[in-house]
Amino acid sequence: MDRVLIVDDEKGMRDLLSILLKKEGYAVAAAESAEKAREHVGRGDLDLVICDISMPGASGLEVLKQSKASNPETPVIMITAYASTESAVEALKLGAYDYLIKPFDVEEMKIVVRNALEKRRLEHENRALKRELKEKFHAQELVGESPRMEEVMALVAKIAPTNSTVLISGESGTGKELVARAIHAGSPRQSRPFVSINCGALPDELLESELFGHTRGSFTGALTAKKGLFEVADGGTIFLDEIGDTSPAMQIKLLRVLQERRIRRVGGTEEAEVNVRVLAATNQDLEQMVRDRRFREDLYYRINVIQIRMPALREKPEDIPRLALHFLVKYSRVMGKKIARISEEAMRRLEEHAWPGNVRELENVIERAVALENSDAVTTESLSREVRSGARPSPEFPVSLSDGGIDLETQLERLRQHFMEEAMRRAHGVQTKAAELLGMSFRSFRYFAKKYNLLDPRREPRAGVG
Fold first, then answer.
1. Fold classified for 397-466
2. I need a surface site. Which of 194, 206, 420, 444 has the fewest CB within 10 A?
3. What is the chain's Cα-based Rg?
4. What proportion of the chain, given as a percentage, has pLDDT over 70?
5. What is the domain partition of the chain in residue ranges?
6. CB contact at 8 A, 28 and 8
7. What's the per-residue H, E or C state across 419-458?
8. 136-308 and 314-389 share one CATH topology?
């Protein structure tokens, strides 16, 4: 809840505004004087202050000054019974967001409050994104000297200044969102918001509300109107992760936005133009999904203007040492440790590991090693059991290419079913956990689980597929 403080010496006005704002879904506190308001303002946890100018003792302008000194980000709306141009100008010079005269229109007050809070949210998001870009998403974050990564970085540098839609494909953990953020950081939109959403993590109804927003009362619990992420990202970039997991109905709605650059909030009748750059990502084969009629062909061509394929870590093993050292420096600094190197034996184990979880898995392994290591170098004892043992995924799936050839799609289908059954066993039937073990979105896991009849409680999982 947004926290609002009402400061007015008239009890009737405090009660009126408290009732009004509580109905709008805000958490409300009230104070009858500037002195009483100091306690609330001093804590610095307010989202909005509504303050009368003329009060006995210290005036509302003193509250405004203290609020701006304690938390400059908190907007302050001034109200008064006197139409004094001089006091209005002074309040605005001191940083007041707006100025209303009693008796004010209730609907006008609601609108001013909503706009003030929305402005505060957007400013906060922009500051946070700028800090994040400055601290984390520099060019050096795209680590790697392999030919595959050099190709990726060259393409990012080339397309970042454009406004083209980009599809980033690759396995889970390869750094698709990192590339999306690098594109945004190198674009003319870098000072505007970068907004990210995992399309496979939400049901359709919630995803639609998150993307396009909703009007007040459009569904149960919609106590206030809300901007969608397309509106929040206006002027900036929206990153649609795991777009391959969207339903056919949602694909139609996304296609319309990409074609017309207009959105309509859930429950609303009016349309609004949006100026956003769309970056999408998937760990699935969208071309095959189009052939299987599980993904719209027209949407595929809309998002696939430029495609960047992120290589799996096993495809660029020469980058493992540099990535490992990069994460070593990062987590040594975060944890305040002086670990300067990785032992030769530990590095050899890192280079020999298969990395099914890609760069994300490598980062997790190094973070764990730094947390556990007590010496000045990462040793094999600090590595995970899988890396120490040199274990590689070896499914019970012996297939050789005979002279007559094989049906590759069938074999891959059997391999996927094998690993999903194994994941369900290890997760004791908990689908979300099984999906995490495989690096799959829940929506994708559920689709294939139904296809393979893995959700039937009467069905005993198979031990293997040999």
1. Arc Repressor Mutant, subunit A (1.10.10)
2. 206
3. 28
4. 90
5. 3-121, 136-308, 314-389, 397-466
6. no
7. HHHHHHHHCCCCHHHHHHHHCCCHHHHHHHHHHCCCCCCC
8. no
Range of lowest pLDDT (206-215, 322-331, 412-421): 412-421
**In terms of pTM, does the model score above 0.70?**
no
Give the pair of three-digit tokens for residue 92.
């605005």
- Say whether the peptide bond before residue 103 is cis (omega within 30 degrees of 0): yes
Domain at 136-308, CATH homologous superfamily: P-loop containing nucleotide triphosphate hydrolases (3.40.50.300)
Q: CB–CB of 360/394 below 8 Å?
A: no
> Read out DSSP for 374-426?
-SSEE-GGGS-HHHHHT-----S------TT---HHHHHHHHHHHHHHHHHHH
State whether the Cα torsion 114-120-123-124 is positive or negative. Answer: negative
Average pLDDT over residues 50-66: 90
Strand partners, 140: none
For the four alpha carbons of 87, 88, 89 and 92, in that order, the dihedral sign comes to: positive
Please, are residues 274 and 230 in contact by the beta-carbon 8 Å criterion?
yes
> For 355-383, what is the mean pLDDT?
94
Contact 241, 211 (CB under 8 A): no
Place of tokens 């509302």: 60
* pLDDT tens, residue by residue, 115-151: 999 988 888 877 776 555 544 444 446 788 888 888 9
Which CA distances in Å does 322 have to 111, 159, 318, 326, 360? 53, 25, 8, 6, 14
Q: What is the mean pLDDT of residues 148-176?
A: 92
> Hey, what CATH class is 314-389 in?
mainly alpha
Strand order in the sheet with 237-241: 194-198, 237-241, 277-282, 166-169, 306-309
